[in-house]
C-alpha cells in the first residue's frame, strides 16, 4: 500500500498527536491484514512501544524525520518492529509536531491578546485616577488641552528652580513667587506626560507595574524563541571544527543585533540541545524547577549557589502555569581553572497544553560587554517537559549563553565552547541521574543491603555521602560567598590552587585550619577508561597513599542509579581496618570519584541508624570530563574517545588551632604529594595499555 502523506495514517485518519508523543501510549496504531477489511474500513489494534524503542525512534527522528523505506526496514529489524509500525510512528510524530506548533502559536497569540487588554485596562485606570507628580493633586483628564497643561508643568518647575536659587543667597530671606500653600492645579490627558527625566516617577505601584509588564514581555519573547528552537527540523546546533565551538543559526541574530556594540576579546556564544527520558512525572519536575532550593539540590554539581530575588505576579491565580521569578545563581565546572559563571535571569513557567510544560530562562538587561570576571548572559534557554507513560517524562533541554572566554583557562576552553561543560547534555544527564537515584532508593529494601546496616542507617550513609560530595565541590570552586579563602604560594606548579578555611565548633567539620588543594590536568585516555581505573578497588594501591600498598575491599555497596554507575560504597583497607566512604558515577555529565576516610566508631553508629551530621569528613577525589576537542569529522567527543580533563582535589587538617599559620613549606609538601599521585596514575595507565 502506498503512503497517503504525512498528515494521514494507513486508514486515512488524522493520527492522534498524544499517542505519537507518548511513545508508550495505546494510541499508536498498526494496520492488520486486508482480510479484516469491513465496509471499506480497516480494523486497528493498539500497539505499545517500549521505552527503548521510543528513545531509539526519537534519536533517529532528530537526524532524519523522513526516513526512506530501506531505513524504516532497518529500524524495524533493529527494534523488533514491523516496517508499517515504524512508518506510522514517523507519520504520527510529524503530525504531532505540526499540531503542537499550531497549538503553541495560538497560545502565544492569546497571551499577547490578554496582555494587551490588561495594558489597555491599566492605562484607562491610570488616566482616571492619576495625580500630578509636581503638585500632588488629582488631575482632571480632558478638561485642559495638552499645551496649557505643558505650560503649567513648566511654570511649576521654574518656580522650584527660582526658590532653590533664592535659598543660596545669604543676604535675602527665602522667598517664593507662589505660596507653597497654593500649588498650581495640573491636569493631563496623557498619564505619561509628567514623566520628565528631571522628576522621574519615583517608584511605588506604577514603577512595579511597569517592571512587571517589561519582565513578562521579555519572558514571552524568550518563550517564542524557545518554541522555535524546540522544533525538530530547526537547524539548531553544530560544532565548528575550526574553533570547536557549538554554534547555532539562531544565534546569528544576536551577532547582527549587536554589530554596533564593542565586545571584548574572547566574547563567545554557545548553544546546545539534548533530548531524553527522565523517570519523574511532569508536574513533579515543574515544581522542582520553580522551587530554587529543590533546584539547587538536584543540580548541586552544577549550581552551588542560587536564590530567588523576586517573585513577579502575573495574574496566574496561584498556579504554577504563568509563574515568573527573578533568580540569581552561579554555575560551575569542577575545576580551579574555570571561574563560576555568575548569572541573573528570569524563569517563566507555562503549561502549553495538558501534559506539556515549558520552563524558560532569559537574562534581562543583557550586557554585551561582559566585563566582570565570570559574568555571563543567559540567552533564551530552558526545557520542554512532556508527560509519558509509567511516571516518565520526555525532556527537551535547550541551553544558550554568552560569556567572555578569556576568563577561562585555555585547557578548558574547548570543553566549555563545545557545549559539554555547561551545555544541555550535562544538565539533562545530571537530572536523569538524580531522578533515577530517587526512584532506585525508593524501590529498594534498604534493610537488606548489608548485614548490620539498618534501613535508617542506609539512608544516613546516603546523606553522609551527599555532604561529602558537596564539600568536595566547594573545596575546588569556592567563590567569595564561601568560607574558603585563596592563598598565594610561591613557585607553585602550573594549574595548582590552594585555599584555607578556619572552622570553630561547626557540626560535621574538623575544628582548626583546613587546607584544600586542587589541580586540573589532561590525560591521554578517555573518560570511560580513566573512570574504570580510578573506581576499581583492585587498582587502588597503585595510586592512593591511604592504602599503604595494600588492597581495599568493599563492605557496603548502595546502588543509587545503575544506568549512571552511581554507587555509594564503604571500603576497608585490608590490614589496618581504615574505613573510606566513597561515591562514584560515570555518565554524559562527566565522571566523579569522591572519597573520605571516616572513623570506625562514628560509622558504626551511623550504620545502626544514628544521625550522620556529626561525622567529620575531609573529602578528596577526581572529577573527569572529556577534553572537548573535536575529532576529524568535527564532532566533539563526549567520553568515548580522545583525552580527558581531570581535576584532583584533596582536603587536609593542618592544625586544630584556628589561629595557626600554614607555612609555605607545608603547602609545598602537599603540592609534591599531588604531583606524585598524578604521576603514579599516569604510569599505571601506561602499563595497562
From TrEMBL:
Ranges annotated as biased composition (Polar residues): 173-193
Principal location: nucleus
DNA-binding region positions on the chain: 42-101
InterPro entries: HD, HD-Zip_IV, HD-Zip_IV_C, Homeodomain-like_sf, START_lipid-bd_dom
Domain Homeobox positions: 40-100
Keyword Translocase assigned: no
Region (Disordered) location: 1-48, 173-206
Source taxon at top rank: Eukaryota
Localization per Swiss-Prot or TrEMBL: Nucleus
A Pfam family assignment: Homeodomain
Keywords, sorted A to Z: Coiled coil, DNA-binding, Homeobox, Nucleus, Transcription, Transcription regulation
Keyword match Nucleus: yes
An example molecular function term from Gene Ontology annotations: DNA binding
Gene Ontology cellular-component terms listed: nucleus
PANTHER family per the UniProt record, alphabetical: HOMEOBOX-LEUCINE ZIPPER PROTEIN HDG6, HOMEOBOX-LEUCINE ZIPPER PROTEIN MERISTEM L1
Protein name as catalogued: Homeodomain-containing transcription factor FWA
Name of encoding gene: FWA
